[in-house]
Amino acid sequence: MDPQESFEELVKTYSTEIYRYAYWLCRDEAVASDLVQETFLRAWRSIAQLREVAAVKAWLITIVRREHARLFERKRLPTEDIDEVPVEDELNLSADAQMDVHLVRAAMAELPEKYREPLVMQVVMGMSCKEIAQSLEISESAVMTQLFRARQKLRELLEPSETIAEGQR
Amino acid sequence: MSDIDARSFRLRLGADPGDPALKREAMALGGGAQDQLRQAQAFEQALSAALAVPLPDQLQQRLAAIPAAQQSKGRPWFTRGPWLAVAASLLLLVGVASLTLQQEPSPATKRLGTISMAHLSHEPFALLRTSEVAAETIDSMLADAGLRLQRPVPVNYASRCPVDGQKTVHMVIQQPGGPVSLIYFPEANLQAVGEFSRGKTFGKTIALGPGMLVMIAEDQQSIAAVETLWREAAAGSGQQIASIW
Predict the structure, then answer these.
(1) Would the CA dihedral through A92, A153, B5, A143 be positive or negative?
(2) Distance from CA of B163 to the nearest CA of A (A)
(3) Do B50 and A3 touch (CB under 8 A)?
(4) ipTM
């Protein structure tokens, strides 16, 4: 496979996951697109060294995290209203489910970054606790704790709206 | 189930509900463990759907175009097509003439040029943007910086960026000769009006509206075209305070 084909394969395989990861890091569509473009630009420049398939995902994540941190050092980014983010059509969700999606997204946006990031790595990127621990450079047990707390916090955030919805019925 | 087992199960369910071992454990534990597992799995489905934000239009195409864009950037100018060779010879003539006539940029121009170029180096990905930013977005960003255009200007990238203590608007406009980066500074400094260059990159600073517009590109003709575009868009706004170039 020539470098261009390898790169196209890389884009097809990882661009969706990487974009979603970037989006949940910064919660801004334009900034997430920029982060992803910069990440893949670097991937293209290093394509010759990216032979180890197993390492590619971790490498891409490292670049997104580094670029995001650099952006945040320079400026505080305005974040877009989570209700404005469209729901993925391909999922064919019912109207109720779409409302749930918006509620969960709003709750996600309120999660502290230390909880949100490992959760996105696990749910979006399909990473194991061990892989997340390596990426975040923390212990596996710390990852487990953060993931547990992330879900616990999400449930707490979602509870009031569930109660309201039930009360209205 | 014992309290310890139940607690350990709940912790693992909260941390990694996709772990296949949990199903066996839920069956072994009995009690409410299987219900907890079902609830956790339903929650995971909702979570997974919520996190699946759609990709912006054209993002994959823009990513797939990176190798071509980079290769064309890396090629010598004389391999990019015969029309470019003609344009390059014309530029050479203009360049020689302007080199002999061009004055050393003022310290204020040099300073504005240096801080602008330093900022651009932080956002190289902006140069790859090809889709047009909505005119309302540009209007709103420029209005925050005090500039109101009389007609829209096509812009491919726009971001509010703090530069040198000012709330600037960083933009990129794609031109046939390559991308032109622009930074609009809300504070006017007429002493900074001028031209500057570093290596193959050229820059021009003009007063526009209440502030300064810095344009940077490798192709001077593109800068000239963008300058005309912006001067025309700002003309008649009653804000143009200097027209030196």
Answers:
(1) positive
(2) 9
(3) no
(4) 0.81
